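Our consortium's second objective concerns turning raw sequence data into structural hypotheses that experimental partners can test. To show how far this objective has progressed, the report includes one record in full. It was chosen at random from the queue rather than selected for favorable results. The single chain below, 63 residues long, was entered without modification.
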Amino acid sequence: MKLIVTGTQDGRPVSFQRQTPDMALETALHLQDQGVAEVYITDITGRTYGPNEFAACFVRAVS
């Protein structure tokens, strides 16, 4: 699965391709911690997930 994590830093877009949902979530949270604005994750279908959707869409329940 390919996911693209995108944000805006100093007025410029930054993007990172990640292979797993866990890696995409980790990257998105790291970018937010670094002050990058407008961070979101896009999946292979083109659907975009904003910060308020990260936990619901990218964190698996432990069983």
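The partners drew two points from this record. The mean pLDDT is 89. Residues 3-58 form one domain. Both points have been shared with the crystallography group to help prioritize constructs.
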